[in-house]
Amino acid sequence: MADVTGDPIVKALQEYTTCDVSDALCKLKFRNGGFLSGLTLWSPQRQEGSTKIVGPAYTVQYVPLDDPLPKHPTHYIDSVPHGAVVFVSCPPKTPNAAYGGLMSARAKAQGAVASVIDGRFRDLQEQRDLEFPIFARDVGTAPPAELLKVAAVNVPVKLQADEQDMTIQPGDYIIGDINGVVVLPKHLAELALPLMAKQVEADSAMAAAIQGGMTFTEASKKFRS
Questions:
Q1: pTM higher than 0.90 for the full model?
Q2: Per UniProt, where does substrate bind (predicted)?
Q3: Which of 50, 74, 217, 225 has its CA 20 to 30 A from that of 103?
Q4: Complete DSSP assignment for the chain
Q5: Is there a binding annotation on residue 120?
Q6: Cβ contacts of 199-204, under 8 Å, gap ≥ 24
Q7: How many domains does the chain have?
């Protein structure tokens, strides 16, 4: 994946929330509106503030040490493209952290937008001191080496959530804010953006009408039908 900072899709998505993206994906019949359950904002603040991330996914696949897949020959963090979102996939129910403060230091130096950890991460204060956005399932203290190895980068990875069957493809757009994290499949992006614009316009008109005394039912019928 090359430098992606000039991607017009990324620029356009900056205007929308994760909820806007999900609304559009629901209209396109994409499961769960692209929502990735269990991933919440930890840095630079815990579930507050105006943090917003948008970028194509640079995926990292961790597997158990006894997995037959060979260990990836180089450290994934040195190959993060400028403008990308690092998406680290960790085997479910792993107590050790799969990501730490030095990873964010390098990712930030590379120009990465954020890191999303489908598992645990550590060094929370370091992450916040860096003001680097982190979304994750939880925190931990132990490093991954005693349990895990990186098997591949930029490969499809499955979300580690029992309630969902979701796959993140390299280059899919990752959008995150205090509502959570959404994946927008790359092939649906150009279809979804006009739907987001239309929905936001309708919702803004509805909000103004409701504040002016119109009922929700009336406003919905007038602006959404």
A1: yes
A2: 100-103, 122-123
A3: 50
A4: ----TT-HHHHHHTTS-HHHHHHHHHHTT-GGGGB-TT-EEEESSSS-S---EEEEEEEEEEEETTSSSPPPSS-GGGGPPTT-EEEEE--TT--SBS--HHHHHHHHHHT--EEEEEEEE--HHHHHHHT--EEEEEE-SS-STTTEEEEEESS-EE---TT---EEPTT-EEEEETTEEEEE-GGGHHHHHHHHHHHHHHHHHHHHHHHTT--HHHHHHHHT-
A5: no
A6: 199/20, 199/23, 199/24, 200/16, 200/20
A7: 1
Distance, in Å, from the CA atom of 133 to the CA atom of 145, rounded to the nearest integer, reads 24
Instruction: Using the Cα atoms of residue 94, residue 45, residue 38 and residue 24 in order, give the sign of their dihedral.
Output: negative
Measured distance CA(171)–CA(83) in Å, rounded: 11
Confidence band of 224 (pLDDT split at 50, 70, 90): confident
The answer to whether 206 is a known ligand-binding residue is: no
Q: Is 111 annotated to bind ligand?
A: no
Q: Any known ligand binding at 102? A: yes
Per the domain annotation, does 105 fall within a domain?
yes
Name residues whose C-beta falls within 8 Å of residue 186's C-beta, 6 or more positions apart in sequence: 56, 169, 171, 172, 173
Residue 3 has pLDDT above 60, yes or no: no
Is 123 annotated as a binding-site member? yes
What's 159's domain CATH number? 3.50.30.40
Domain carrying residue 29: 8-185
